[in-house]
Each structure stands twice: as structure tokens, then as C-alpha cells.
Amino acid sequence: MEYLFKILRFDPRQDEHPYFQDYSYETEETKSVLEALMEIRNVQDCSLSFRYSCREAICGSCAMVLNGKFDLACRTELESLDSPLIVVEPLPNLEIQKDLVVDLDPFWEALVKIEPFLHSEGAIPEKGHRIEDEKIDKIFQYVNCILCGCCYSACPVVSKRENYLGPAALAKLYRFVKDPRDKRPFKNWSRVNTEGGAWGCHTIFKCNEVCPKEVRPADGIEALRRKLIVEKIKSLNPFKR
Fold this sequence. Notes:
alpha+beta; Ubiquitin-like (UB roll); five-stranded mixed sheet; two-stranded antiparallel sheet; 9 helices
């Protein structure tokens, strides 16, 4: 099968504008888009830049836009695209560093702000912080996030509001707030009770649509909003005399 790859190229050090470059690629085997990109780079153009690591759809490094769809290049087979023309673009909403490589700093900075780690109390138990299966099931959906950045890149709010934390960070926060082992006080995590946090989401659900692991970040944001309201009512305690 012969394919035509149209890959968006841009090197800010020397290019004035991004442009598409065509590459012909032929294979008799079943190949992923990532494998094809690696062969194009190795054989046709060593200047082509893109990220990848695990090649097992676990690390999220090779997230990109393929024929208009957000996905991981390593898990997307050429045959599944139903077209010999394959348009490859970098994730939007993030500055292009070179070709398909984007600057993920804003994504990581948003994640750091919600402190994505367990806030426990007291000494760590000898066998670690255990949790019952039925309780982990309630947050497992959000544990599945591989931090690929697809939801952040697809979010229309991120494109318009610089201070918006984005769906991945907010869903990850809910994952910890919902974890019974996490003991962070309400005043610490309620800092997202803002337009730049939980209330900035416009519930367009684009993040749910593009997530390669079906995390459905918007579900976590909606649950976080409900949690914020419940905790605020509790703090007011209208029955206290």
C-alpha cells in the first residue's frame, strides 16, 4: 500500500510560517503511524522531529493530530485511517518547538498547581496506604490518564483563557480529592473554585471526545464542581447555633 504523508513542518529558528511537506511512503506490512514516521525520518528526511517513547500507548509522548483526529501515533494503524492521504499535525493550543514537537510547559505547570500526589497523614504504613477495590473503582477512570495532553490541546477554553488549568489537571485533582487516603484540607484544593479552575469549563466535552484512554475529564470537572458546592455548604453549617 502506498501512502502520501502531508506533515506540518515548522522550525521557528529559520521558518517564517508553518508549511506542509509531502512524503511518499510504501509498505507491505501492517504499520502504525509512528513506525511510518520513524522510517520517513530515518530514510527520507533526518530533520523531521517528533516525540515518542514507549510505543505501547502508555507514555502519551506521541500524541498528535492525524487526519483531524487527536490520537497516539503508536496505536494508530495506517489501515485504520481509511485513506492513503495522511495529514499529520502537532497538538494545537501549544507553541510549536519544531515540526510535531510542542512546548508542553503550560500543561505541566497546570498539573503542578493542583499538587498531583497523595496528601496523607501520619507515618507511612509498613505496607503502604491500602485501599479497598470498590473504592479504587470509583477513581480508576481518572487514574488511567497518561498525561498525553490531548484534552488540554483540544479544549476551546484553553485557547482563549491563559489562566485556565485545563481538563487534565482538574480531573487529576478530583482523582485525589475522591481518594479516601488523601487528607488535603478543603482550603487547599478549593483554590480551583474560580473561573480559571473548575468553573472555567464550558462543558463542550471536547476533552471527553479526544481522550485516547476514555478518562472523560469533563466528568471529573463536573464531579469536582459538585464536591466544591457540597463542601462549601458544610463549611457554612447553617444548623449550628
